[in-house]
Amino acid sequence: MSSAQYFLDKAELPKKARQRRIQTRISLGSIVLIVNKLNEQQRQVVTEIGLGGLLGIGCTRLNLELCEFLVLNFNPKSCSLDVHDHQFNLTLKDVSDILGVRSNGCDIDDRGSLEGTESLHESVGVVNGVIPLDGLRKYLEDEKTVDAEDEFKRKFTLYALGALLCPTTKVSLNVSSLHFVKDVEVMKNYNWGNLTLHSLVSGIKIYQDEKRVNISGCLFLLLVFYLDNVCPTFESTYATTRSIPRLYDWGDSQLKKTFQLFRRLGGFHNEVKVTFSKPNQMNDHHVDVVKTEIYDDMRHDIGELKHTMISMKEKIMTWEQKANAPGDGWRHVNKLVSLRM
Questions:
Q1: How far apart are CA 333 and CA 328, in angstroms?
Q2: Each residue of 226-282: pLDDT tens digit?
Q3: What's the predicted TM-score (pTM) here?
Q4: Distance from C-alpha of 105 to C-alpha of 3, rounded to nearest angstrom
């Protein structure tokens, strides 16, 4: 075959569809770095503002493959995640429980005039009508930034919004964001949770409708919401007691272990076998609880445990009889054995 014919044949081959990869401006690593260097006074004012939950964040990066899967299976109209034949409604309470930001109080309006805020423009570093996130980050990461006055409050809040809670597709915030921080005292009453939820739902809708690559909104919230409700079934990696806010339990190490389990099951997109880790809250999320083989396995395991406890009871009774000094140790075992499914 001549080289000319080769290129002609190659030109006739159908082009491979370009795989869309979701992209986000969220910057978890910088948030973790900043909150870890804050002094006690700064941490106190962050809590007073209503963003105290962010002080315990330990996740430095997102799994974009899972995020894309979740975004494509999120229904902005019903504000629900529809995965694995179940529907999970994302509520304002979930935002509060996961992120630990204030989710009550005054709604925030970024409309209206900013007349008379020229000094504020200079304070937060407005450049050509926008607030560059890089300038905010450098200020917060600077070891010389040790005070907790109004400048710190405004810049921390703006960076938390732009890099985590309400990231856009740009590396800057619109100047209208000054409405969020122009009155430091009023900031303490703002409903940051509602702002975060609205930003995420709006960002997902635009992403789905316009077939974009870049997306706005807090994908970290959606990620933890999913992992808090669904877990792979090879083994349990969840603590019996859960932290509030939930982000405390989802650091890099925990996320890595969970993602490894999903990969062993074939990935998030496949018909993976999962369990739902909040059975006591299933009704709140419109999940129909049915008797499956998982519950049968649990009953079997508990049955085995019951027989083991009976054997232990008999041994303890024998020991006490030999010692001729009855005690109450076996009564505790007897109480366990008497439990019924």
A1: 9
A2: 998 887 765 544 444 678 899 999 999 999 988 888 888 777 776 655 666 654 343
A3: 0.74
A4: 71
Query: What is the token pair recorded at 90?
Result: 């994302």
Three-state SS across 275-293?
Answer: EECCHHHCHHHCCCCCCCH
Instruction: Calculate helix-pair angle for 192-210, 92-99, nearest 10 degrees.
Output: 110
Residue 172 DSSP SS3: strand
Neighbour tally for 191: CB within 10 Å: 21
**CB burial class (10 A; 0-12, 13-18, 19+) of residue 86?**
middle
At 279 the pLDDT is: 41
pLDDT higher than 90, residue 320: no
The C-alpha angle with vertex 126 and arms to 122 and 127, in degrees rounded to 5, equals 120
What distance lies between CA 192 and its chain's CA centroid?
15
* Bond prior to 245 in cis (omega within 30° of 0): yes
Our separate counts of H helices and E strands in the chain read 15, 9
SS3 193: helix
Kindly state the DSSP code that residue 127 receives in the 8-state scheme. Answer: B
Asked whether 42 and 35 are in contact (CB, 8 A), the reply is no
Contact between residue 47 and residue 85 where contact means Cβ atoms under 8 Å apart: no
What does the pLDDT average to over 147-151? 95
334 vs 313: CA distance, rounded Å: 7
As beta bridge partners, residue 125 has none
